[in-house]
């Protein structure tokens, strides 16, 4: 049974400040006998101490008086202590022994007394517990094998950077304890994130990864199958992933990581959240999908304290839509961040975790038994309270930043000590040799010899070893690599069902008190469905979501205020104005169609990197889930550039991991200044592997689009799930077009048999195509301004062609359209962005090399900013673009 100790919000009692006042003024009941006076003094001292420490929790701080935090269960009876049976004269020495030796517990900062007392009690019981001989032998075997792997690879590959685990071998004891005991504490599926240090030791000693695979990488060979090398670039040794099923029913997945430390953390948590929350068809239920999934994050000390994404992850730990029921954290605290000795400003690297009242177990790295016990405490705490917990393993690094680095250059005194001491495995072996029967030691020695022989055998088999790609197994069996040609998918849907979805998306319970401003908005959507016309952006999105849900797909929509929408247009969540009750009307479909998917709306914290990393983690867990992350404004993705570069743009190429995540990036120059204008389309175009010389292939790392109609957007979302492969979709999504009357669609454009069109030819020409002398190619909302200007000028010889999809580049469609304009004298690319921004530098060489057309450029000149902050200049520039576009 899990107990989450919640914060209770209510108006504070007036008596608290009075009690505090009585303490300071000494206005207390007087007693006559000395004993009573002593008791009174003790009580007053305790009360004074309590309010000095906790008074802020009841302080009247909120000027609105909406809420003040008081800890629930604060007055619960304390948990009993294992020291209770000891005599008073021995308690002191026992407590000192438990808390001041080779491990300790830091939990005094926790606000809830029941939680604190439970932790202290459990810690004390574990400290007083003696591990049995089998467990001690197992601990020794694990850490000695980890040391042997480092010795072996150092001898065979002396010039390879391995980022070994020397000095931190007790990390393996901690992990072994987690994997062995997880099933006893509600966890049967573990997803692990770890950076470089000790990663290969973990892979080979505990996760059954064939050492031959690592040896191949150390030799400079590929780690992916030969038949995948034409679509994959592979990754370096320290980023390899694996998964394993243990005999105790626990499955462990180690996710690949980039060299950006800690960036994998939210990805792990997102994958775990997906396992815990996403609906799975009962007939095809994957054994790894259940609430017992556990997030395990292994950090370096400097990275834990120094990388902002760690704080972002802690900040969203208990936020609805991002809560994974607590993560277990292990800090391999090498006491040196890169090459500096002081990598943070607080006492411990783990202090950052206190921001969410997270308990911290500190362990001496030379004490693997204490690391093993710490893991058990972490599992118990997480299972009961559903909250994060940290183990700070204070150890060291035998070598420098890597095996080629001489650490004595910057840390001479530290490494003088390191080089003169025994390793943790040697220290522990000496300890248990004096404790265990001789036969245990002999058996242990034999098992360690067997492991060394195993490494030799694996080394000899490197050239014959065939890597296996795990990408398309289990839930991903229906997917494959994208084909080497462009494909068209029927993404339309049956009209009557779309009408049903549209009406359901704005239906509210009878007594629901809808905001007055939304009543018209909701009724307008019903009118759209009845008239089958005037479909706007938000409605098209709701129809796409609802139709996918009816087909059994889950949908996750994430981002800052996405329930309402940045531009107050979406309203897929509605709030009762009397009760604050939140409803999601689309989920009502499940009452009539129980096999339908679920819409998860996650209004995120004010974060980009952690949130987008989290959503990427959700997207790689199941191909049946459409994951959409919306930036408040397009350029806000800057805060998540690491996730985009290291995961979204390159994850499939490096690791064979597909993701169908959708990024909605509101884009358009509307006079709002340098920020809030551009989603930096040029950056995404530079990240793509779309070629300037080859044509018509879906085999790109991501799709990049700038749709101009709600129907096009509808088909894009449905196409993400219709295909037998998954690719990230980058959408330069609209701001102005959300409510522009001209940018609406007919319901028939969403009907069965329809699909997304990468290029939209001019549908408003009033002459034959052969009479056209100028063709303007445009991408995005500028089309509507150009069309209005052409109508004003009453020009009939100019065609306007919209490129809706930039990647993959629609070469064949463009060639077909251009062939119609046989007498065209000038082809123009027109964009509202500056010349060094937008799509110009991407489309120009492709028009020239692939389409066979030279383009003239019309748009703003180069600038250091995406848009001017001077309103009059913006209007002047826009007028000049329109004037130039139609000049003879």
Kindly describe this structure.
The protein has 888 residues and is an alpha/beta fold. It has four domains: 1-76, no CATH class; 124-278 and 287-463, Thiamin diphosphate (ThDP)-binding fold, Pyr/PP domains (Rossmann fold), CATH 3.40.50; 495-741, Rossmann fold (3-Layer(aba) Sandwich), CATH 3.40.50; 759-885, 3-Layer(aba) Sandwich (Rossmann fold). The chain is 38% helix and 13% strand. It contains 28 helices and 24 strands. The strands form five sheets. Strands 3-9-10-8-7-4-6-5 form an eight-stranded mixed sheet. Strands 14-11-15-16-18-17-22 form a seven-stranded mixed sheet, with helices on both faces. A hairpin with a 6-residue loop joins strand 12 and strand 13 (582-583). Helix 6 (170-181) runs parallel beside helix 12 (368-385) and helix 16 (495-504) packs antiparallel against helix 17. The chain is globular and about 100 Å long. The N and C termini lie far apart (77 Å).
């Amino acid at each position: 049974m899990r107990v989450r100790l919640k914060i209770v919000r209510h108006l504070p009692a007036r008596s608290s400040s009075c009690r505090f006042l009585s303490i300071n003024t000494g206005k207390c009941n007087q007693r006559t006998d000395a004993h009573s006076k002593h008791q009174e003094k003790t009580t007053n001292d305790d009360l004074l101490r309590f309010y000095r420490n906790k008074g802020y929790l009841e302080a009247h701080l909120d000027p609105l008086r909406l809420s003040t935090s008081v800890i629930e269960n604060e007055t619960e009876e304390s948990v009993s202590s294992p020291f209770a049976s000891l005599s008073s004269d021995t308690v002191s020495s026992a407590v000192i022994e438990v808390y001041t030796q080779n491990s300790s517990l830091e939990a005094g900062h926790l606000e809830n007394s029941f939680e604190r007392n439970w932790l202290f009690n459990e810690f004390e019981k574990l400290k007083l517990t003696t591990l049995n001989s089998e467990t001690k032998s197992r601990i020794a075997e694990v850490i000695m094998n980890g040391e042997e792997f480092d010795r072996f690879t150092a001898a065979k590959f002396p010039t390879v950077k391995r980022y070994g685990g020397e000095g931190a071998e007790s990390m393996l004891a901690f992990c072994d304890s987690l994997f062995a005991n997880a099933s006893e504490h509600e966890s049967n599926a573990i997803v692990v994130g770890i950076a470089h240090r000790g990663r290969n030791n973990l892979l080979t000693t505990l996760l059954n990864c064939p050492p031959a695979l690592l040896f191949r990488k150390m030799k400079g060979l590929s780690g992916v199958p030969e038949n995948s090398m034409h679509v994959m670039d592979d990754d370096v040794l320290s980023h390899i992933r694996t998964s394993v099923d243990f005999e105790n029913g626990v499955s462990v997945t180690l996710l690949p990581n980039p060299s950006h430390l800690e960036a994998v953390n939210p990805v792990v948590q997102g994958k775990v959240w997906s396992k815990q929350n996403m609906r799975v068809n009962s007939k095809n239920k994957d054994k790894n999908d259940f609430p017992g999934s556990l997030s395990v994050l292994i950090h370096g000390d400097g990275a834990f304290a120094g990388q902002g994404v760690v704080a972002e992850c802690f900040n969203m730990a208990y936020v609805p839509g991002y809560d994974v029921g607590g993560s277990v954290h292990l800090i391999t605290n090498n006491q040196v961040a890169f090459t500096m000795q002081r990598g943070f400003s607080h006492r411990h690297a783990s202090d950052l975790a206190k921001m969410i009242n997270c308990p911290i177990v500190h362990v001496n790295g030379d004490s693997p038994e204490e690391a093993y016990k710490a893991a058990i405490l972490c599992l118990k705490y997480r299972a009961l309270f559903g909250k994060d917990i940290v183990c700070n393993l204070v150890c060291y690094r035998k070598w420098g930043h890597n095996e080629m680095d001489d650490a004595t250059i910057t840390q001479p005194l530290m490494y003088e000590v390191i080089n003169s001491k025994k390793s943790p495995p040697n220290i522990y072996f000496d300890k248990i040799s004096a404790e265990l029967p001789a036969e245990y030691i002999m058996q242990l020695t034999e098992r360690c010899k067997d492991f060394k022989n195993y490494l030799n055998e694996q080394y000899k088999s490197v050239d014959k070893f065939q890597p296996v790609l795990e990408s398309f197994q289990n839930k991903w069996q229906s997917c494959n690599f994208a084909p080497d040609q462009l494909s068209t998918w029927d993404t339309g849907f049956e009209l009557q069902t779309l009408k049903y979805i549209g009406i359901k998306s704005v239906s509210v319970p009878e007594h629901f008190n809808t905001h007055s401003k939304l009543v018209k908005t909701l009724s307008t959507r019903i009118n759209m469905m009845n008239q089958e016309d005037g479909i706007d952006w938000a409605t098209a999105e709701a129809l796409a979501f609802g139709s996918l849900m009816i087909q059994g797909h889950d949908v996750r929509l994430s981002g800052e205020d996405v329930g309402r929408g940045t531009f107050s247009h979406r309203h897929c969540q509605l709030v009762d104005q009397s009760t604050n009750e939140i409803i999601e009307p689309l989920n009502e479909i499940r009452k009539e169609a129980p096999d339908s998917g679920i819409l998860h709306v996650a209004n995120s914290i004010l974060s980009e990197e952690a949130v987008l990393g989290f959503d990427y983690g959700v997207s790689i867990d199941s191909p049946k889930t459409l994951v959409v992350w919306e930036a408040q404004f397009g350029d806000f993705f800057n805060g998540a550039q690491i996730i985009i570069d290291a995961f979204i743009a390159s994850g499939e190429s490096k690791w064979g991991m597909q993701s169908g995540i959708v990024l909605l990036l509101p884009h358009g120059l509307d006079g709002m200044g340098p920020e809030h204008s551009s989603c930096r389309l040029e950056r995404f175009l530079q990240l793509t592997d779309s070629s300037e010389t080859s044509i018509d292939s879906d085999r790109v790392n991501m799709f990049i689009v700038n749709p101009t109609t709600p129907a096009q957007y509808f088909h894009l979302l449905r196409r993400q799930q219709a295909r037998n492969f998954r690719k990230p979709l980058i959408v330069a999504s609209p701001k102005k077009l959300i409510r522009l009357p001209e940018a609406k669609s007919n319901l028939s454009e969403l009907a069965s048999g329809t699909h997304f069109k990468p290029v939209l030819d001019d549908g408003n020409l009033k002459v034959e195509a052969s009479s056209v002398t100028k063709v303007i190619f445009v991408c995005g909302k500028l089309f509507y301004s150009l069309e209005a200007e052409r109508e004003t000028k009453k020009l009939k010889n100019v065609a306007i062609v919209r490129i809706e999809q930039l990647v993959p580049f629609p070469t064949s469609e463009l060639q077909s359209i251009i062939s119609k304009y046989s007498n065209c004298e000038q082809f123009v690319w027109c964009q509202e962005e500056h010349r060094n921004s937008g799509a110009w530098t991407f489309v120009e060489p492709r028009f020239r090399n692939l389409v066979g057309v030279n383009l003239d450029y019309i748009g703003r000149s180069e600038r250091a900013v995406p848009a001017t902050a001077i309103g009059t200049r913006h209007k002047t520039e826009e007028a000049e673009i329109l004037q130039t576009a139609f000049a003879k």
